[in-house]
Each structure stands twice: as C-alpha cells, then as structure tokens.
C-alpha cells in the first residue's frame, strides 16, 4: 500500500526534532488509520538521527520489556548497560517516579547527541514501561531525546505529558487516490469512487476492501455488494464501539443499518423507548439525522451492524421494515422488498428510487439502490430505461464517472433509433463535460446511423453540440452543427428548445446589429418552465447583450431552483463571474468566486473556465505570483480543451494587469495575443481587449499601430454596436489624441462614461485622463481626477486600480514568528513550503492534497497576514 503523506503530522515531528528543548508527541487514531506508516515515513525523512521501536504486544505481560527495547534503541553502550541493570524495587507510583528521575539524570549526564525516538503502538507496551516513559516525556530537556509515539488512545493519566495529535481519516480525494493505487490504472472509475466513499478514510480498510473485489467488479462489469462486508481489520474495533450502547440503542442502530437511509418516523413510531434510543445514537455520534432522514454516520459501523446479523434475521427484518413503508414518500420500501425471494420484481422501483435520490442530492444512497438492482438482474432484462434515467441524473449532478459506470450497463435488446440516439446524446454529453472536447466522429456516426429514423433526437444532439461550440466562440463550427440540426428540425416538424437556445447563442456571440434582442420582459412563470440548461443559455445571451441585471436574475434562478444540478451550476458560476466582470462590479465578482469555492468539490472537475476564474480572482486581489501559476494552468487546460474564449479572456485579464503595473511591453504582447486569439469572431465586445491595446501601444510610442486598432473598433461599432464599444472608442480616441485636443476628448469620454458606464469603466476613463493631465503639467487637475478615479474604483471593488489611482499605499511589515501564530497548523505547513520556494503544484504533490485545496488555503493565508503575493509572503517569512 502506497504512503499518503500526512504533511501536517510530519511537519509537527520535524519541528519537534528541531526544538532545542526536546519534548514528546503522540499520534492517536483507530486501527488501520496509518500510524505505523507515519512512523516509518518520519524515520525516513528525519534530519536527525532517528530510531524506530515497534512494540511487541506479546511482551506486554513482561514488566519493563518496552522500556528495555527503547533504551536498547539509543545505541549507546552506557545507556544499554544501565538499562540492563535497571530494576524496580516496587511498582508503587512513588517508586516508579523516583526511578524515572534517576533515568533522566543519567541521560543528561551522558551528553547524547540529538536523537529522535519513534515508538509505534506505545499503548500496547507493558504498563510499567508506559508509566516510566509517560513520566519522562514531560521532562526530556537536556537529555537529547525527542520522543514521538503512536497509540489508539491515551487511556491513562500518566500519558498526559505527551502532546496528543489525533490522526484524522483520509479525505475522499486521498481515499480515492489510494483505492486507485490498490486496484490499478485500469480499474473502473466508478468502482474507485464507490469504494473510497465507503472506506471511512481508513487506509487499511481500503487495502483489504480492494483485495476482496473480483476482476469483473474492479472493471465495473459486475455489481458490488453494498453495504460492503466489514474488513477483518475493523470488526474488533467496531465491536468495542457498539458495546458502549444500550440494548435499545443497539436494536435501533441495527434497523438504521438495514438501509442506506431511513425515515425517522417509520423507525421509531410512537415508541418512546425507541425515540430515546435514537437520541442516544445521535448524541453518541453513531447516526446523522437531517429532517426526517436518518443514516449511519460511519459506513464501517453500518457494515459491521448489517453483516453481524444472522442471514435469516436480516431477511426477516427487511420484510418487517418493508411492511412499514407506505405512500410515495417512502424511498426504502423497494430496497427492503428486494431482499425477499421475489426481489426481482422490484428492480424498476429500485432504479426509480435511485433516480429520485440522486435528484435529492443523496447519490451515495442512490448508488446502493442501483447496485442492488444490478445484483438482482445483471442484464436489466426490462429496466434499461430506468438505468438510463439514473445515469442521466448522475451526469446532471456532475458525477460523471458514476454516470459512465451505469450508462455502460444499459444494453437494449433490439433498440429503436430513438433509444440509440438518447443513449448517444447522454454519452456524448458526459464526454463533453469530462474532456470539454467534442467527440466529432461519435456525433457524426450517431446522427448518420439513427437521424433519419429519429430526426427530433438528432436535432437535440446537434443543437447541444452547436451550443457547446458557441460557448467557446467557435462560431464557424456552431453554425455548421446548427445548420445540420435545422435540416432534422424541418424533417421532424417540431423545434426542440435546445435548437432555439443554440440559435440565440450564435446571434449573441456574433453581436451584429441585425440581430434582435431577446424579449425584454422576463416572466417568472416562463423562467420556472425552462430547463436548467435553457436557463444557462438564456443568461449567457442576456450577458452578451449587456443586460447584466437580467442575466444575474436568470442565473439566480439556476442557483435557487436547481440546488443539486451541480454540472449546470458549475457553468452558471462561470457565467455569473463573467457577467459581473463585464458589468464592472468586482465586489459581486469576488463574491461569486467565494460562493463557487464553497460548492461541493467532489462533483466538479477542474476545467479551463474555473482556472480562468481563479486567475482573475488572484490578479484583482494583487496576488500576482499566485495568478501567474493559475494562468499557466488555465493556458494548459484551455489549450487541451481547444477553448479560444478562455484563452482570449485570459490574455485580456493578464494584459490589463500588466497595464495597471505599467509593464507596457508585456501589456502590448498580451493584448496582441488576445487580439490574435479572437480574430475569428470580430465581436470586440466579447473579448474587451481593444481599448487596452490602444492604450498600451500609445504609451509605448506606437501611435500608428494604435490608430489601426481604433479604426477596426470604429468599423465594428457600426456593424456590432454595443454600449461597451461606444465607451471604449471614446476613451481610445482621447488616449490617442494630440496634447491640444486630449483634454476636451477626455471630458467628453468621461461624460459618456458617467452616463452609461459602471464604476470600473468610469474609473478606467478617469485614471487615463488623470495620467494625461499629469503629463501635460496640470498637477492640480490631475490629482483631483485621480482622486475621483480612486473613489470610482473603490465603489466597484477594484482595489488594485484604486491603489494605483491613489499612488499606492504603505505595506505593513510583520515579524515572521508573529505571522506564523496567525495561521492554523495546516496553513503553517503550506506557508513554510512557500517560504522554501515550492510552487502550488509541488505543494499539492508534497502534501498529497488537491491543487484547489492549496489555492484556497493560500488565499486565506494571504488575507490573514496581509501578503499581496507569493513572493511577498516568502519575504515576510524570511
């Protein structure tokens, strides 16, 4: 089993080793949590001389056996000789403590070089040794020893001298990585997720559960038995925990364990004793209750309860619990009935319940229902449509690996063209969401094979692909697919909503004056009737038509009415950010990023749009080193996804930041890159780089090139008019104007901005005016204008531009030690790695955490310590 680095714990050990005062630390955790692995890794990484003592439980009956092993490991003849002669006159506490003091005096007299003593399973030593070591642990100064131990728990008072640090279970991402390593690279990704979610974050459970799978289960060809049988490593641990419960609580716990979730009322009824027993379970942390739904908190305890029952008892209890279910609200009746001899008859009900659970954000429970259905009927003789609906529901949640797992189990005996096209559309939609690349061959093959027999299905598929291309401003491909979709729409005699959405998207991206805007009046009833994807497309159109408040309203409908449609919500968050940036409301834009980061991460894959959002977020907070690293990721992902929209926006954001810093050569390079990357669409209002390019070229002494860009802007102003382009042209004319004409043109541009622009764009016009007035020698007027610009930027939330207009602000310098005290343990680890010069990807690899986790923690660190960038943080720490 591979080692998953516990960075915080290893850092604690390293800091203890570096301490001149010595000390003692103990890591506690359940069996299998990785204590021995931690000790082994600490031994390998230690910069001090280190020794590892592994306790032999068979010697626990021999007094002082553990103590002797520890002293023998010191590898100093004097210490070994002393330990061999050491005896206790009595096991009375006073005598033991006196002997421990003698030991400490002897150790101080030896003048040992620093030594890190690692003791694995200290709590399994003989009691006298534990008492001696525990007493010495708080008095190691001057001995040269640093002691780090592991134990399941600290049950004795004499161990309190150790500083305790509990080992937390692995995160889902860490568990999934470990499962993947155990099952191999060819393992079904859905199987990996199912195993990781039910491992309890325990590495030993992962190892034993993975080894219990058959090759067909690993490959996703055979259903899993859920709940999984408890690994032998956890049976004894679970038995000890269950033994603390009252008989009534144990009985209720067994009933809760019979299903992935249960209805509180049906489990307890009006029985006061069972109600109290459920309260006991809740208070003890055995169960979670949300509303009227109860489930076991620990999947390993659930497995233990479930499989500890005799088979006939389990079967009888399933039958009794099934009888309690009634009405449409009951989601577990089919589950319990499936364990009866006639369980095959409820496969359709199991899959229907699985889809409903998924839509209710209960995907873990839904997976158990689906796996149960596959166990009963592996071929899904008559229920392939139910499995297809379930896979589609998972895809909508963003659970793409699970969706692919179950979609692969849909095998229709003699499928119709409509069934084939629906399957193809779902499969292609999953692939689009996973790779962000259109599988062109698959689309064309599906349409050519089945489109003539199901023209409406072909139109739906082709419209989806067209909208996907429009979203990345690839209008040529979008129009090609929509034209083909139109032929099938004509043949079908019916227009799907997706076709209308795709056509509107193309018009909005193109931005020609001949395109009429969508209806200005937004009826709440009409919005409620739209699908989540139609809402997202509608909001995109509104955003591109500069109707930002209305776009914000539509996006909020997605967030409010579709809380579990995580895949669509991811697109909506990206759109919401772009909408607020285009509106010039940076405060709202930053809030969007914060809310987006609070969304569940397991259901969203990283993509170029998200990397772009994090780049903008870091740039506008002044975290430029962080932004540059995120920009590298965005470039990589945008190129892999063939997404010109993201790449053009990225160059514009970076170019704007370079202009802010007056790095004019870099600004020209980046704006030119944005210009080249968006040359195929002509709609300058989408990229919004042209005004920056004019300003950067002019300030660089290249007015002829700037004038050429302005002439293109004027052409587009006639063909694709927009409020932003009117403002950009007015500002660019003033920037390019000769000194004698500039003041009047700037006055006109500012007046236009005051009437039509948001505060950010107004601030950009004012800061350009103020800089020009300063170069003209009009210092007083310049200072007044720049102060007004700073106020506008502050209102917009553009703090970096406000500082630029105010000519900067002082930097607060803090002592490095005081900085570290502001941070949590896990933040200190990351800060230290930044100080050493590691980049985010290297930090994520070093700590075995996700890149997103590193970014989030760094953002919090920057805010806590007042750092503006990675290099600034490193300088503060140094």
Entry keywords:
878 residues; mainly alpha; Rossmann fold; five-stranded parallel beta sheet; three-stranded antiparallel beta sheet; 8 strands; flat
Describe it for me?
This protein is mostly helical. It folds into 6 domains: 7-166, P-loop containing nucleotide triphosphate hydrolases (Rossmann fold, 3-Layer(aba) Sandwich), CATH 3.40.50; 172-214; 232-420, no CATH class; 437-597, no CATH class; 624-805, Serine Threonine Protein Phosphatase 5, Tetratricopeptide repeat (Alpha Horseshoe), CATH 1.25.40.10; 816-877, Winged helix-like DNA-binding domain superfamily/Winged helix DNA-binding domain (Arc Repressor Mutant, subunit A). Helix content is 65%, strand content 4%. A 5-stranded parallel sheet has the order 2-3-4-1-5, with helices on both faces. A hairpin with a 2-residue loop joins strand 7 and strand 8. Helix 7 (172-183) packs across helix 8, helix 12 packs across helix 14 (272-284) and helix 28 packs parallel to helix 30. The radius of gyration is 33 Å and the shape is flat. The two termini are 38 Å apart. The model is unreliable at 808-814 (pLDDT under 50).
């Amino acid at each position: 089993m591979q080692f998953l680095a516990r960075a915080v714990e290893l850092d604690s050990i390293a800091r203890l080793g570096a301490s001149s005062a010595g000390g003692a630390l103990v890591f506690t955790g359940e069996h299998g949590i990785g204590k021995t692995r931690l000790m082994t890794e600490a031994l390998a990484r230690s910069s001090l001389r280190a020794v590892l003592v592994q306790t032999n439980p068979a010697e626990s009956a021999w007094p002082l056996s553990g103590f002797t092993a520890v002293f023998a490991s010191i590898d100093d003849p004097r210490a070994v000789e002393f330990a061999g002669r050491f005896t206790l006159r009595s096991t009375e506490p006073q005598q033991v403590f006196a002997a421990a003091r003698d030991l400490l005096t002897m150790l101080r007299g030896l003048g040992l070089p620093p030594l890190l003593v690692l003791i694995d399973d200290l709590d399994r030593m003989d009691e006298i040794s534990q008492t001696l070591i525990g007493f010495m642990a708080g008095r190691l100064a001057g001995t040269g020893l640093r002691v780090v131990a592991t134990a399941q728990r600290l049950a004795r008072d004499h161990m309190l001298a150790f500083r305790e640090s509990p080992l937390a279970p692995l995160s889902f991402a860490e568990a999934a990585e470990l499962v993947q390593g155990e099952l191999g690279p060819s393992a079904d990704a859905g199987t990996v997720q199912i195993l990781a979610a039910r491992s309890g974050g325990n590495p030993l459970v992962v190892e034993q559960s993975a080894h219990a799978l058959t090759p067909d289960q690993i490959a996703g060809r055979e259903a899993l038995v859920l709940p999984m049988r408890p690994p032998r490593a956890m049976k004894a641990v679970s038995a000890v925990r269950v033994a603390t419960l009252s008989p009534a609580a144990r009985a209720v716990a067994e009933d809760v364990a019979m299903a992935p979730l249960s209805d509180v009322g049906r489990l307890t009824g009006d029985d006061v004793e069972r109600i109290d027993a459920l309260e006991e379970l809740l208070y003890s942390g055995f169960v979670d209750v949300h509303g009227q739904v109860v489930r076991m908190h620990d999947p390993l305890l659930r497995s233990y309860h479930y499989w500890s029952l005799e088979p006939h008892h389990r079967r009888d209890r399933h039958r009794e619990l099934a009888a309690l279910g009634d009405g449409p609200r009951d989601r577990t009746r089919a589950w319990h009935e499936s364990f009866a001899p006639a369980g095959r008859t409820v496969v359709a009900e199991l899959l229907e319940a699985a889809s409903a659970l998924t839509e209710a954000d209960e995907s873990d429970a839904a997976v158990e229902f689906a796996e149960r259905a596959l166990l009963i009927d592996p071929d899904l003789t008559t229920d392939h449509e139910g499995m297809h609906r379930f896979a589609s529901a998972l895809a909508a949640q963003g659970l793409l690996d699970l969706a692919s797992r179950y979609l692969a189990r849909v095998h229709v005996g003699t499928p119709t063209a409509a069934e084939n096209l629906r399957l193809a559309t779902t499969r292609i939609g999953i692939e689009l969401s996973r790779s962000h690349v259109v599988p062109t061959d698959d689309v064309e093959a599906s349409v050519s094979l089945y489109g003539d027999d199901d023209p409406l299905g072909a139109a739906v598929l082709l419209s989806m692909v067209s909208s996907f291309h429009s979203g990345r401003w690839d209008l040529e491909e979008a129009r090609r697919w929509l034209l083909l979709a139109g032929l099938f729409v004509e043949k079908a005699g019916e227009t799907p909503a997706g076709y209308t959405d795709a056509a509107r998207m193309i018009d909005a991206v193109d931005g020609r004056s001949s395109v009429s805007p969508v209806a200005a009046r937004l009826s709440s009833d009409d919005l409620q009737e739209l699908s989540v994807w139609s809402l997202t497309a509608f909001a995109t159109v509104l955003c591109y038509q500069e109707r930002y408040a209305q776009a914000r309203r539509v996006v909020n409908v997605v967030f409010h009415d579709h809380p579990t449609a995580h895949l669509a919500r991811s697109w909506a968050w990206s759109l919401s950010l772009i909408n607020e940036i285009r509106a010039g409301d940076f405060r709202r834009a930053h809030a969007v990023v914060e809310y987006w980061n609070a969304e569940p991460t397991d259901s969203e894959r990283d993509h170029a749009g998200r990397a772009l959002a994090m780049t903008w977020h870091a740039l506008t907070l002044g975290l430029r080193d962080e932004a540059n690293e995120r920009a590298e990721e965005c470039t990589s992902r945008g190129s892999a996804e063939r997404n010109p929209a993201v790449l053009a926006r990225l160059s514009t954001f970076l170019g704007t930041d370079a202009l802010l810093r007056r790095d004019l050569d870099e600004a020209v390079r980046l704006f030119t890159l944005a210009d080249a990357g968006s040359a195929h669409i002509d709609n300058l209002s989408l990229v919004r780089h042209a005004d920056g390019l004019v300003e950067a070229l002019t300030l660089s002494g290249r007015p002829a090139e700037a004038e050429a860009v302005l002439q293109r802007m004027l052409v587009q102003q006639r063909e694709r008019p927009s409020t932003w382009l009117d403002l950009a042209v007015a500002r660019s004319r003033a920037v390019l104007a000769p000194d004698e004409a500039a003041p009047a043109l700037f006055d006109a541009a500012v007046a236009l901005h005051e009437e039509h622009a948001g505060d950010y764009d107004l601030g950009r016009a004012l800061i350009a005016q103020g800089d020009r007035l300063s170069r003209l020698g009009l210092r007083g007027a310049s200072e007044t204008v720049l102060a007004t610009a700073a106020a506008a930027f502050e209102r917009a939330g553009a703090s970096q531009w406000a500082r630029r207009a105010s000519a900067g602000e002082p930097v607060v310098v803090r002592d490095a030690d005081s900085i570290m005290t502001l941070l949590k343990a896990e933040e200190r680890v990351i800060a230290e790695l930044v100080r050493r010069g590691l980049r985010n990807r290297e930090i994520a690899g070093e700590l075995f955490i996700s890149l997103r986790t590193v970014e989030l923690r760094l953002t919090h660190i920057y805010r806590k310590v007042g750092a503006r960038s990675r290099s600034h943080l490193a300088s503060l720490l140094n």
